[in-house]
């Protein structure tokens, strides 16, 4: 077998341009062997999805392949016709959002049968369809094949998509963030399933993700993309344990991990936009170890050890990652005489969905110490967001009391006093709709100060500047509108708006879940700073255990509207008592866990 | 834009520009266009151009007032229904559905026959026919916008309902509303002109575009322009208003950008 046949995929110097001749991706070289999982890692805008779609000969409107060659399973993709014949036969696709990818009016069995038929133009036996489903760990009986997509859970839907992508026995499957919308436990199942399928079917998988911990878990090799280029590539172990490109190192240092509490060291600055990309290294402006040459000339991809390539001439100066544990915080917490800032007792809440009352919280009690940070963790549907909304007065509880400054709060914000509303502020999950697009940043931040602190125009204006400074944004941002800001910047403006009320308690509802890892690190570190600076108590809602370990002193684990475990963050992470907590922790992907595993594997070899 | 400006200007300044009185008989009925009478004379021998220039004022006035009235009612109902999302919403929307189910022209004709012809009856009845559509559009947009984070943030800091509606919701539903405004205006123009055409609106001899089309049908073979001119003006106005609405929405989207 020649090299080309042995490889499932070869991208040779691929470049894709937008109509203005700026390259979205360029000089992309990737090689994948059969039966290999390659993790393609990068943040939004890095070009990872464009790279993936180029394999299908599919680029969006106005995009053009201007250079390079794509070879799948030994066949050179030279024309659109060949691309078309390769889709399904040689390469198939698993999308990010299975709920949208499956036709809602097709039964599962028919959807898969259509895939097989489309690829092979033969009639399909029902047994064949059910064996497809069994292969991905789903029941293959007729009861299941007759269901519609909406009758399946997210994890099941994603497995149906995987089954459909396997239907034609392709050489390569491209998976675009297939577990991003799933809960950790479901994600764990899907990842295990993929690893098993890879071994059994000898199919190569290109796994696109922004999450290094997930990549560490599933991929043998990792390619890191930045600004449309591969900046580092190598075995997962080498790339993650000893990242040699400063960007990869920055990503690793920005990834929170529930096994080790350490300060995150966010990257400075932002990725350049298409137009801002210069002749030099795209990372140079953010790079702590740049030399003069970096700004003039694009570095070559150097092979520094077998299979480990880095696009940085100064790679040997990249400092190694500091994996040490930060222990200081655990000691602070042992003080028990801290006064309580917020007390929630016996809280019960419901919401109406499709004419039915759904119980979101049954009997939730906890308290937040002044200056402390309590995290509410749980999977989707555990009721955590509803609890956040109840505290903020956006959702009336059915029972229970919320005590703030010794007074019990009314269920709805409009019945609370100005002082009470001022004292509790909320920041929402989605930065894209957190700010009114018709209000400038200044208007948005000044409003709470004027309304709740009765400031006059001038005072509010200087307060806006002070707060922008506190959230590390230049004061020139005040005149801008939300559409001109990035997601991370918007979220910081939203935090500044909450701070403008001069709150004692900040409720953060999944505030980093839609942000890139490096931006998340910036926001989390910012939160830590303003917590001491403004003496805030924080209620932090999240599904990400790594984030919990980074920000919270205490953690409450929610399962179906009930608190199943509560305790000091370190203790819960190290020795979980409740079975559900253990399941969450086991399933949560972790870089440290992957590195520990590699360590012990090596131990066996020696 | 230019179309609308011209038509509106002509309608407003028309009386100043008109060469003849709109109601005076000055020649042979149905006379073809000549140098003295650019668009010829109508069925009673009146100057078509002058009638066209005068007629615009009444028509436009009625349409503008009718559209404003439609919006005053529709916007209020839509905002309240969309924002409260409760029993009030259901009640208001059922009410709107009842009005929506009535055939437009029939309602107008019934109203006119019951209350007698006249400008204000026409305005009132066309608003009655058109407001349910507005209410529905406003409600849907409001419903969507009121779930956004910035509305929730405003609720959490205890802003009053009017302040939330005015500051947070209204500016963000302006896009669909302005696009719709053009459409509603055209509808009211069509409705009012239709009723006039049927002879149940503005009483002759007062000039009105719809009325002119009706009156001059009988002389269409002698002076085509007496029918064509008002029809074309109505068509241009409708097209223009819609284009302006669309362009406005587009510029709104570009300058501030919807996420």
Strand order of the largest sheet of chain A: 6-7-8-3-9-10-12-11
Our measurement of the CA-to-CA distance between the termini of chain B, rounded to an integer number of angstroms, reads 28 Å
Q: Within the CATH hierarchy, at the fold level, what is the topology of chain B? A: MetI-like fold
User: Which pair of protein chains has the largest interface, and what are the residue counts?
Assistant: A-B, 37 and 19 residues
CATH architecture of chain B: Orthogonal Bundle
Largest sheet of chain B: none
Radius of gyration of chain A: 26 Å
- Sheet having the most strands of chain A: 8 strands, mixed
The CATH superfamily of chain B turns out to be: MetI-like
- The helix content of chain B is over 70%
Provide mean pLDDT of chain B, rounded.
80
Strand content of chain A: 15-25%
Please give the count of helices of chain A: 25
Q: What are the segments of chain A in which pLDDT stays under 50 over at least 5 consecutive residues? A: 326-332
What amount of the residues of chain B lies in strands? under 5%
- Helix-and-strand structural type of chain B: mainly alpha
Mean pLDDT of chain A: 85
Characterize the structure shown.
The complex is a heterodimer of chains A (606) and B (259). Chain A is an alpha/beta fold. Chain A has a domain at 104-168. Chain A is built from 25 helices and 22 strands. In chain A, the strands form four sheets. In chain A, strands 6-7-8-3-9-10-12-11 form an eight-stranded mixed β-sheet, with helices on both faces. In chain A, strands 18-19-20-15-21-22 form a six-stranded mixed β-sheet, sandwiched between helices. Chain B has one domain: MetI-like fold (Orthogonal Bundle). Chain B has nine helices and no strands. Chain B has helices spanning 2-17, 48-84, 87-100, 104-115, 119-145, 149-156, 161-197, 209-215, 225-256. Classes of the chains: A alpha/beta (606), B mainly alpha (259).
